[in-house]
Amino acid sequence: xxxxxxxxxxAVACVSATAAQGSVSRPNVLFIMSxxxxxxxxxxxxxxxxxxxxxxxxxxxxxxxxxxxxxFCNNAICSPSxxxxxxxxxxxxxxxxxxxxxxxxDKQYLxxxxxxxxxxxxxxxxxxxxxxxxxxxxxCVLERQGKYVDPDFRIRGDKPWPGNMITKKGMHSSDxxxxxxxxxxxxxxxKKKPFFLMHHFKAPHDMFTNAHRYDTYxxxxxxxxxxxxxxxxxxxxxxxxxxxxxxxxxxxFLGRRLKVPENLEEKEYVEECYQRYLKRYLRCVKGxxxxxxxxxxxxxxxxxxDNTIIMYTGDQxxxxxxxxxxDKRWMYEEAMRMPFIVHWPAQLKKEQQNDWLINNTDFAPTxxxxxxxxxxxxxxxxxxxxxxxKGEAKPADWRKVTYYRYWMHMNHKLAVPGHFGIRSDxxxxxxxxxxxxxxxPKNPVFACTPAAWEFYDLEADPKEMNNLYKNPxxxxxxDLMKTQLKETREALDETDENYPKVxxxxxxxxxx
Length: 512
What we know:
Blueprint: H1 2-25, E1 28-34, H2 56-63, E2 66-68, E3 71-72, H3 78-87, H4 91-94, H5 109-116, E4 120-125, E5 138-142, E6 152-155, E7 165-167, H6 173-188, E8 195-200, H7 254-257, H8 266-301, E9 308-314, E10 319-320, E11 326-327, H9 333-336, E12 340-343, E13 352-354, E14 358-359, H10 363-370, H11 386-389, E15 402-406, E16 419-423, E17 427-432, E18 452-457, H12 475-491, H13 500-509
Parallel strand pairs: 1-8, 1-9, 2-13, 3-14, 4-5, 4-8
Antiparallel strand pairs: 2-12, 5-6, 6-7, 9-12, 10-11, 15-16, 16-17, 17-18
Helix pairs in contact: 5-10, 6-8
């Protein structure tokens, strides 16, 4: 009997060990996201700023993994983009169309599904979705936008959300967020389970404040200018003259915030504003890059680096002076395009590039498939591109266009009108409907702007300077894309059936 008991004990122990080993052998997932970190400011994307070497660590992730070249957000503003990532849904479906949107714990689908798949989950850094990130096993998140210095963090505790707070005195947010993630990785998790950690930097969101150790970084360097720094796109009556630029009279008054001398001529004023703007931005980027190295060093020291899928992205793109613009919001490439890099030594060959049309609703389905979830939940609208990471060919039924909509008409004093559209591999079609979805404007800044169409051939005109909507040579393509736009909006429940004011504008201008 004692022999039989010993055999049973050994057998149970072996099964438990095998189960634990099988669980741990699944890849960890480290999802790193910065706020407003655009492809132009990542060396691996080869922009005019690459020679400044602003991101050697992020570049190494791309060199030893896969760089995705056609990844786009569906709404270039913080909260809606984050909502799409956490739900796998577009804005109308998840309800977050503007910066004040909220995702409650029961709809935080990505961590819910990852927990069910056996992962331990954590959300650390910038959350910006108002409601408690309660679906995560652990969270320590910035209060709304968060502060760059002496940041306050909300944590789970005895008081109702958001009443439990800790403050990291004397610290820069990028350093503090990384410290918290490292502490959780070292001491806060169950190391018998694979982890899913969403590590979100506040930087380099405006107004840019870097850690003091970077105060002299690029001090004596002239930052290369975009070729269209002084030139707005030809655009349309729906967009022309709008948006916040770098000049003296531009909305948001960036130059004043950066203390650019007012006695400069306009051209010199814009150029000086650009230099100060970019240096402050890139100093914040440098702090991100250095802190990512701290995370990689820890994973290497524990032997977990090879079995950890590291994803790096920004919540959207950002204008760095292109078109004489700053901020994001527009459907133009610099704002719509997201960086996306995956490093996974156990699976990926080095120096891979991908050009599938991907958007941020696809992140959740992809992470779930990589975690062993065989089928994307029906409530998610995105599609997994895990097969790309496995070296497989693009599926024949992969999307031909990706959809975009900006809802916050003329908000935030940044003068960007409401618009929507689609982007294909080569072309982009945008409709500026120029109105709040419902109700009369509360003040003149929200007044309607003209409705108009814009169309760009991104192969011939990658900087989107020439609106070809009225060019008869493209009429057949434009008509096709209008059909695709209508079908895409219907398929994604992104129509304006519930917004009669906008629908009337669409109906009146669709055939123009």
